[in-house]
Amino acid sequence: MTKDQSTLFDHPEGYGSVSRALHWLMAALFAWQFLSAILHAVDREMPAARFFWSWHISVGFLLLLAVVLRGAWALINLGNRPAHATGFLGAAARLGHLALYLLMLVVPLLATLRAYGSGRGLSVFGIQVFAGGGERIPALVEPGSALHGLLGWALLILVAGHVIMALAHTYLWREDTLRRMLRGRPAPITRIE
User: Fold this and answer.
1) Residue 8 is assigned to a structural domain of this protein
2) What total number of domains does the chain contain?
3) What does the alpha-carbon distance between residue 149 and residue 138 come to, in Å, rounded to a whole number?
4) With 0-12 CB in 10 A as exposed, 13-18 as middle and 19+ as buried, what is 21?
5) Domain assignment present for 89
6) Is residue 186 scored above 80 in pLDDT?
7) Could you give the 3-state DSSP secondary structure of residue 123?
8) What is the predicted pLDDT for the residue at 109?
9) What 3-state DSSP class applies to 79?
10) Domain that holds residue 123
């Protein structure tokens, strides 16, 4: 089976199973993160807010790993992926996806650098990623403190726009945009002779 025939890899008519799995895994993890941030902003003492927030760092680090993996997989499939539309909407889609990838990388990276710079270290799902050095490094802490939350809310707005545009392409303009991320490419036509 060649790369063109495999359902693992992307194809001009749809996304492969790896791209789709990473997309929907990250969608679920981002839903968790955004819910935890919203609940924390509304009332951090509420039991649900405390529960979701207690996993915020671990889920955020998992998202950092997932976005690196997804970005690498996207680069492997760059020549195979479905093309964006042409014109203004195509340019907007390319810029929107670039902004999404950048923020998906920068937001958790800032939090990770802040954790390192705080001197406390970082544990993810109870596993120590790096130990705290005990010494605070303001050059690593301050950018994270200033930008992590702000860029996180910007990411939420971009994700909402991404969802709205996927729905508009599917239900307003009757395009198969959403189908390509839900089911991949169409099944090959087999000939009976």
Assistant:
1) no
2) 1
3) 17
4) middle
5) yes
6) no
7) strand
8) 96
9) coil
10) 17-182
